[in-house]
């Protein structure tokens, strides 16, 4: 196994619960490809963000997700019950298209004439 991720689908977001890449395969683009798979599941119409928590002491994960355009939004104090360690709550948000976003539905595909 090169890597794995466990996530939840919510109505307006994806939540990463667990994310890991084998030490032998780190810094080879595997983790970025995994994150990209999740980003590809986002859409302007429904799920627009990915959220996760990362341990305060896990600097490599913090830097990795920051490099993938996740931003730390808050600190969750005493988040982990096993160590009472704090966590950073991080989020990736889908950006609207530069030329503007136009929702498409079945009715908009037909002329009103």
Account of the protein in words:
- With 113 residues, the chain is of the alpha+beta class.
- The protein has one domain (3-109): Gcn5-related N-acetyltransferase (GNAT) (Aminopeptidase), CATH 3.40.630.30.
- Helices cover 17% and strands 32% of the residues.
- It has helices at 30-39, 59-67; strands at 3-9, 13-21, 49-55, 71-76, 87-93.
- A five-stranded mixed sheet has the order 1-2-3-5-4, with helices on one face.
Q: Strand order across the biggest sheet?
A: 1-2-3-5-4
| Number of distinct beta strands | 5
- CATH topology descriptor: Aminopeptidase
Return the CATH architecture. Answer: 3-Layer(aba) Sandwich
**Rg, nearest Å:** 17 Å
Mean pLDDT: 88
Task: Count up the domains.
Answer: 1
Helix content: 10-25%
Distance between the termini: 56 Å
CATH class assignment: Alpha Beta
Structural class: alpha+beta
Q: Main beta sheet: strand number and arrangement? A: 5 strands, mixed
Q: Could you state the order of secondary-structure elements as H and E?
A: EEHEHEE
């Amino acid at each position: 196994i090169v890597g794995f991720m466990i996530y939840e689908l919510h109505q307006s977001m994806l939540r990463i619960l667990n994310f890991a890449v084998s030490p032998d395969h780190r810094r080879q683009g595997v983790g970025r490809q995994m994150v990209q798979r999740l980003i590809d599941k986002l859409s302007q119409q429904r799920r627009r963000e990915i959220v996760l928590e990362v341990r305060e002491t896990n600097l490599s994960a913090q830097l990795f997700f920051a490099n993938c355009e996740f931003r730390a939004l808050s600190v969750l104090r005493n988040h982990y019950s096993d160590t009472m360690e704090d966590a950073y709550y991080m989020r990736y948000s889908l950006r609207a298209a530069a030329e503007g976003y136009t929702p498409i539905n079945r009715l908009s595909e037909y002329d009103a004439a």
